[in-house]
Amino acid sequence: MKQHFCLISIGTNTNRVKNIKLAQELLSFNFPQIHLGKEMDTEPIGINNPAHFTNQLAMMQTKLSIEEIRQVLKNIEIQVGRIPEDKEKGIIKMDIDLLMYDSAILKVSDLKKEFIIAGLKEFGL
């Protein structure tokens, strides 16, 4: 079975130290070969909450399909405490997005964000 290259973004603006650490642990458990980039403090974009974010880029290889990866990421968000009602309040306990799967760019607009550009440079991509 083929290994697939994946690029993911991680972000939280609530209980940032605790939530990012828990997400990192859960990601590492589910994807043992994950490589986590540097944590970055960023300002919010497009939400009505002035709280800064801790963001991070990660890359990994996996045999899972896009759908399987997205399900794992969604489960991790829930384990960290994400609930749908929080989003409208600007509370982001955890947001994990699959940005790339092999050569397919899944979140084109996200690749323009400063922390993602910095993370790509850090990874040499």
Please name the defining characteristics of this protein.
about 120 residues; alpha+beta; Alpha-Beta Plaits; 6 strands; kinase
Counting helices, strands and paired strands, the structural category is alpha+beta
What low-confidence regions span 5 or more consecutive residues with pLDDT below 50? Answer: none
| Tally of contiguous helical segments | 4
Along the chain, the helix and strand elements come as: EHEEEHHEEH
User: Any idea what the shape is?
Assistant: globular
Report on this structure:
- Strands 1, 2, 3, 4, 5 and 6 form a six-stranded antiparallel beta sheet that branches.
- The mean pLDDT is 93.
- This protein has one domain: Alpha-Beta Plaits (2-Layer Sandwich).
- The protein is 35% helix and 26% strand.
- Helix 1 runs antiparallel to helix 2.
- The relative contact order is 0.26.
- It is globular.
- It has four helices and six strands; from the N terminus they run βαβββααββα.
- It has 125 residues and is of the alpha+beta class.
- Its EC number is 2.7.6.3.
- This is 2-amino-4-hydroxy-6-hydroxymethyldihydropteridine pyrophosphokinase.
